[in-house]
Amino acid sequence: MAKPTIANVAKLAGVSQATVSRALRGATNVTEATRSKVQQAADQLNFTLSKSASALASGKTMRVILLVSGKLNEWFNSGVLQGAYEELAPFGYDVTPTFITDRSELDRFFSQLPKSRNSDAIIISSFQLMPAMHDKLQAIDLPTVGVNVPAESGYFDASISIDNYSAMTMAVRLLRSLGHTNIAFCSDYIPTDMIYNTSQRTKAFADAAQANAADGVTFSLLTADAHDAPLSKSDLASQLTAKLLSLPERPTAVCVETDQVAIALVKELRKQQLNVPEDISVLGFDDAEIAQAADLSTIRQEPIELGRIAGRKVLQLLHNEPLEHPHELQNPLLVLRNTTSRIDTGAASAVE
Fold first, then answer.
1. Mean pLDDT within 88-114
2. CATH no. for residue 11?
């Protein structure tokens, strides 16, 4: 049986081939009645308009880039991809994921982008743009949506992010209510030439702890030593534990930048004969699936929903629709499990 053509669809629908093309491309100058009639004819004949032909005719690539920090298979990144795809695919858009792990890879990506305007929009996740990068995106008129980025930077047309300041305020207040006054925040090394979402999370923790200083809260910020290649979570936790135990006064509670690092830290603390949560409480961030299995207390964010919202914002920008709330924050949620507890006053006295 011969492959159906656009001419076959036009004949069955009783319209011109140009109308078939416009209808199946989603052009606005076609009535809904005509579009429905054309789609029915196309479905009856199992006809699909070539995406490359559609892109050539419309001037659109029907492609959206998702640029993330870290590997694509990481829990947060894969969730954002899933959510963005769910929103964009029904409108015919492909989502092309790519990733960067350091500044050199980021610079390389942006050096090539203006020469190959091969997408209709870009979603950037978990790191801040530099001014020159923002200028390049503006120069090629590429709509830009951020996920977990600081909206106040002004470098994104729209954004959706977890509210790190609210999250860290909740975390510090929780631990203070459990009797903890000496609290630490543990994170991986962040190069000085990059600004990640966890950079803001660290500052948010310091601000929240400082705001509770009148209630006796003291805090420490512990960061891994500088390293070129990424550390395994086990090696990172080992280094952070050494720093934690080297403090003049050991904290009785620790907030950690992600669940994966928190779980590795709990394991390392127990290797050092410290009981969690009896000797030290540990609070993660993410509520990834692994957190439930590890019975980890944590702060929940929802990357799939962040991706969905980012996808919807992309569609609004591409359709020139006004955004009522261009920059939004997702509310965090405390999830209490078995790695946080009320302070053991006897253990606290022993530490002092």
1. 90
2. 1.10.260.40
